[in-house]
TrEMBL record:
PROSITE patterns: ABC_TM1 (PS50928). CDD domains: TM_PBP2. GO terms for cellular component: ATP-binding cassette (ABC) transporter complex. This is Amino acid ABC transporter permease. It is found in: Cell inner membrane; Cell membrane. The keyword Transport applies. GO terms for biological process: amino acid transport.
Length: 215
């Protein structure tokens, strides 16, 4: 058994938490970009575009994230594509996030009255201008709370990337626990760090919900 002081454990866990934060941000931004593309297909006038987007969303919402990560990390090399744990983790979480964000934002678009589209048409705006200037700003405003709420879910989901070898908070905690045999202390600190990362966002999402309800 290796001797770790309490502060040694805390320091190593905080260093690992940086990768958890970085992975969460990369997946959230990447998922937002891909999710925007999926959203455009999801609300398109062409029925085949809508079906394609619906199938994409159903695929990533209807299968376990762990299986998606396994396919990224173990499946792609079978096709001749070498992939590192970081890349597999980012790609897996990005596609996972994009499906949920696209559906969250679509609910905001659907919540708008048809008159918003008609108003844009009466001003002579074409479809993309209506989306950019009228529809999407309002849809994003409506869905700010669930978007922040999903970010909390995404941060917690990064723990699964430890299974494919990405050195984030949970994988580092496993290594420390194997060296110290102090699971209550180690995993208790991990839970506390996740709580510190997620609780402010949860409170912010609730604040956004109250503001939306007040209007």
């Amino acid at each position: 058994m290796i001797e770790f002081t309490f502060w040694d454990i805390v320091r190593n866990l905080l260093l690992a938490a940086r990768w958890t934060v970085l992975l969460s941000l990369a997946a959230f931004v990447g998922g937002g970009v891909v999710g925007m593309v999926v959203l455009f297909f999801r609300i398109a006038k062409n029925k085949w575009s809508r079906r394609l987007a619906s199938g994409y969303i159903a695929l990533f919402q209807g299968t376990p994230l762990l299986m998606q990560l396994f396919l990224m990390f173990f499946g792609l090399p079978m096709l001749g594509l070498r992939i590192e744990p970081w890349t597999a983790a980012v790609l897996g979480l990005t596609f996972f996030a994009s499906a949920y964000l696209a559906e969250i934002w679509r609910s905001g678009v659907d919540a708008l009255p048809r008159g918003q589209w008609d108003a844009g048409a009466s001003l002579g705006l074409h479809y993309l201008q209506e989306l950019r200037l009228i529809i999407l700003p309002q849809a994003f405003s409506i869905t700010r709370a669930p978007t922040v709420g999903f970010l909390v879910q995404l941060i917690k989901s990064t723990a699964l990337t430890s299974i494919i070898g990405f050195e984030e908070l949970v994988r580092t905690s496993n290594a420390i626990n194997n060296a110290t045999f102090e699971p209550f202390k180690v995993y208790g600190l991990v839970a506390l760090i996740f709580f510190i990362m997620c609780f402010p966002l949860t409170q912010y999402a609730r604040t956004l919900e109250r503001r939306a309800a007040a209007h």
